[in-house]
Amino acid sequence: MAYNEQLSKRIEASLHYFPKDISEAITQKRMFGGIVFLYKGKMAIGVIKQDLMVRVISAKMDETMKKEAVRPMDFTKKPIKEYIYVGAKGIETEEELQFYIELGLEHALTKV
Hints:
- It contains four helices and six strands.
- The chain is of the alpha+beta class and 112 residues long.
- Helix 1 (5-15) packs across helix 4.
- It comes from Cellulophaga baltica.
- This is TfoX N-terminal domain-containing protein.
């Protein structure tokens, strides 16, 4: 199954609002049957099938898991540490999407 290209385009559009030093350091790579966005080579967010995939720092996992349409990333049938999926209902608005993009970038920034 192909990934949600419309969601990918929404992410690309949102990245233009970040400072140039951040937006220019973001690359894309096909992974997990979808597409991921990396900041300086560190995975931040992605689109897997119809879901947004987000890396989240450990300190924010419990709080984030309480949000609507969020579930653990279980790509291997077992939850993967510091990864979540967000379904369509959790990213209906650009503000909601922006929240998760920033969350993923926060994780990537801790890894560079």
